[in-house]
Amino acid sequence: MTFELPKLPYGFSDLEPHYDSATVEIHYSKHHATYAANLNKAVEAAGWQGKSITEILNGLDAAPEQQKAALRNHGGGYHNHCLFWESLCPKSTGINSGKLADAINAKWGNFESFAEAFTAKALGHFGSGWAWLVKNKAGELEIVDTHDQISPVSLGFKPITVIDVWEHAYYLKYKNVRADWIKAWWNIVDWKKAEERYN
What we know:
The chain is mainly alpha-helical. 49% of the residues lie in helices and 11% in strands. Helix 1 packs antiparallel against helix 3 (65-86).
């Protein structure tokens, strides 16, 4: 199995003004593409052709020692970005009903409290990484962050939605002000996709 760059469900400029077209294009066609290429090299070196990305991320403990870091970093980088692009849409519909909305309200009391907690996790993450809404092994929602390209899949979580807080994800438009990027991100979250993943 060769891992390819998935087609974006929107154009580079469709997330404007919240996510600028220059950043989307570079982020996707350079950063994500490099993870895909390096993942394919690592898979070949490990002799793991034919495995799905989830099989790779769930099986890192069994990976050849010399390829373990490459599979974790490039496999995580590839899959994290796939999930990230799928989690965005040109105009967020918000989340007012459905099983995910019910679960958020049950856990945090209301959407506003959840949004505050998620924003705090994303803003407080030190260095490069991601903030995630996930379902844990008990089927409960959690907000977690992961460093570098560690995948929540490898940690036993099911991703629901995600924000990329690596500087390359926002620096062209938002410079060093991560808070502005996080605030903008709420306008382009695809809650329909999040609901699908939750269900």
